[in-house]
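Troubleshooting: if your tokenizer reports a length mismatch, compare your output against this known-good record of 229 residues.
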Amino acid sequence: MITELESLLIKNKPGFHPVVDFDPLNEKLVHFDFTSANTELSTSDVSDTTAFSQYINNKLKSAGAKFGIGGYNENRTLYRRSELFNGEEARSVHLGIDIWGPAGTKLYAPLGGVIHSFAFNDNVGDYGATLILQHQLDRITFHTLYGHLSLHDIAGVNEGSYVIRGQTIGHFGEAKENGNWPPHLHFQVIKDMELKEGDYPGVCSLSERQKYLLNCPNADLVLGMMKYL
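Known-good structure output:
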């Protein structure tokens, strides 16, 4: 059953500004699968950021693609690289969409809003520099989260500041500032922030999958990029 927020995003999708510069007529995307079905990546490759980055770059180059993309509702094995996702029940279900590409890639606000919060989530495997925007459409409030940014992007920003559609809001960060990952954007749509600031789970356990998916609809309803795979 489609939720009220999903219906709203579908209705407004034609008006959203691209989050990254991508020309579907002249540029390509490649799909990245990080489930157990991907036998190309070993545990050691994923644990070593340099080796993982080389894997990403080689896949992009061999496909002639500008970006790699994917991950919504994907049960991933790669989170074993960080203790952050371990606990009484391991977290492995990805709640956003990742766009993989060069460090420094520009990011734009898909629609107007305000800066809800930001933080430097500086743990191995975490978001690193993180920005969260708050939006309102047809009296419905929701949020977009941008993880793995450059530290420069959250320096000097202020909560409550207005952001306009198409404004440059960030860049893909280097490993040292993005949670020790190959450069990419984690983009997530969130209905209820549950009083959290500068952070919200981007990965959940299998037992909480449905709960989180209801609060975090498919981010491609804003991105509109998966159709170009």
